[in-house]
Fold:
Amino acid sequence: MNEIKPYSESYYPPHPTNFTIQMRKNIFFQFYRFIILNYKMLKMTRYH
Structure:
């Protein structure tokens, strides 16, 4: 039978990659995502 170890490595979320961190800090990418999100919300509110 397997023992359950509290606070083992499997309980923690994975770390983001360097590329993911760079994209989160990139102002152009953030602006692009902001526009896309606003478009989706606008579309949702317009049709519902």
Remarks:
- Residues 27-47 form the longest helix (21 residues).
- The CA atoms of residues 9 and 15 lie 12 Å apart.
- The helical segments are 18-25, 27-47.
- The chain has two helices and no strands.
